[in-house]
Amino acid sequence: MSWVYRRPPDVRQRRKKVPPSTRAGGTTFNRTVNDDVDLTDDTSRVHDAARTVDEAVGVTDSITAAKTINVEITDAVGIKDATPYFLDLPGTTGHYVSTPDHVSLDITDDLELRVDVQLDSYNSAALIAKWDAPGDERSYLFTANTSRQMELGVSSDGSNNQTRTSTFTLVDGTRYHLRVHWDASASVFSFFYRIPTGEDLTSDVGWIAAGTPTGSFTSIFSSTAIVEVGTSNTGTSGFKAGERRRAIIYDGIGGTIVANFEPTDFFLGDSDTDTAVDSTGKTWTINGASSEIKARIAAKSIAAEISDDVAVTDVTSRVANANAPSLILLMFSTTLQKTKTMQSRSSKRLVSPMTLRGFTM
Predict the structure, then answer these.
(1) CATH no. for 87-294
(2) Residues of the chain whose pLDDT is less than 70?
């Protein structure tokens, strides 16, 4: 009897062609995969878009679209795209973000406030407030007045208040960094602004002075009022439609940050009653059913460094923001060699890790 050795079929002979799939935006792409790969093409709205990629393909990190569309897959893929988030408010009563009263927010001496905003109208717009007028629990109130000029109001006893105004007039629809500080001993109100070109709100570069009026108060009342961004008087005053990108409270002029509202602490799509903890430990709560964390992404290409373990061919994904769609191109190379499933936190459905998803911004 003789034995004949037969070599098993080459794995490359077992590969098959997956028919083209047509996505949103009219994009068609082909994929070549192994028999054991179940590749799904799915376009859907991702609300809470946090994903974890299984380790079977040597991918160990997570894709956290809900923070910064931040794709950091170690070992196999290296991509990172930082995306600005903002709190979109409709400009109606009850829509704002707040944090409870705290001893660190009861600033009675020097004070500094900064905001990053883009409002449809700056007429009578509340920026940061620890101010409950009906309850005579006033401390400090940073607003734009009816002339669209920055104003800071302070109260020395919770009922009486003193307000001073900047010399600069804000333009509706323009994004600004706005800043005010109050020197208690001299009772000097100092206003500043800049049109941001990439600076962090904490940066001291590029500010333009907008007036240094003086008052007579030399201390601030320690009230029990909450801190609000987007309104005052517990959501009933100063509401204006637009984007709130950040708000910072300093204890002292250039002193310690005691509150730091950042939309990126939330998940994309977070709305009424959703909460997040800031870098100072303060818990912020979104109020109002039409308040929502959104993101705005400019069209761009991202080049990925992909190892032999993971590879995808030419994927184009449409990303819609709050108002209008913009396009983000994910340019990858070679062929999908291995894949595993990942779970979308928003839908709890198992999908392919290379499934194309539609992000609603």
Answers:
(1) 2.60.120.200
(2) 1-83, 297-361
In single-letter form, the type of residue at position 13 comes to Q
Tell me the C-alpha distance between 220 and 138, whole Å. 9
* CB-based contact 29:336 (threshold 8 Å): no
Separation CA 137–CA 159 (nearest Å): 7
**Under a CB-based contact definition with an 8 Å cutoff, are residues 124 and 146 in contact?**
yes
The torsion region of residue 75 among left (phi > 0), alpha (psi -120 to 50) and beta comes to left
| N-term to C-term CA, the chain | 71
What are the sequence ranges of the domains in the chain? 15-48+300-359, 87-294
CA nearest to 193, candidates 134, 88, 113 = 113
Distances (CA, A) of 139 to 51, 99, 142, 227: 42, 15, 10, 10
- Tell me 255's DSSP state: T
DSSP label at 254? T
Share of the chain above pLDDT 90, in %: 58
Contacts of 8 (CB under 8 A, 6+ apart): none
Amino acid at 270: D
| Location of structure tokens 């800049």 | 194
Rounded CA gap, 142 and 66, in Å? 30
Nearest-angstrom CA–CA distance, 159 and 162: 10
